[in-house]
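Deliverable D5.2: sample structural annotation.
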Amino acid sequence: MAERMTGRILALDVGAKRIGVAVSDELGLLATPRTVIQRRSTEAALDEIVRLAQIEEASLVVVGLPVSFDGQLHGQAQTVQRFGGRLRRRLAALDALDALGKPGVPGIPLVYADEMLSTVRAEERLRAVGMRPQRIRERIDAEAAAVILEEYLERRRQAGGQAADRAGDENQGNEEDETR
């Protein structure tokens, strides 16, 4: 799948109760924690992510995929893939605009990126700036999404600007609807 090289990228750290969201700048240099979505229902979470993708004028959505230390995709990764499959279908239905505001490539592509230890690194960062434990709990998911996005952007830079997703489309897995 061809990836648009300009525009903001939205990154997600998908959990059972919360989804952390981060966004890049238009040049793909910086990743900023954006918000945490409380996952009261899958449908509401999907609606909110699509809304944020539109507000941020995202050209790509990166979903953190919890690849195990053995390199396999176990239970949580498969759950994230089902969620990602549902989100991919919703994003594909959107009409994106190009940089000039004219109708462009339909939809917003979605890729997966390895999120190994992103929450650990996020907590280390928040502790390093002296954040209180209660505040860390409130912000850790968005910070983890920023870690995922930073690593994705760095891999993309190292790859010469091409898509740099570890898990990519070849590991989409089963995208049947998740029951919730």
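Annotation notes: The chain has one domain: 8-170. The chain has four helices and seven strands.
The annotation will be released with the project's public dataset once the embargo ends.
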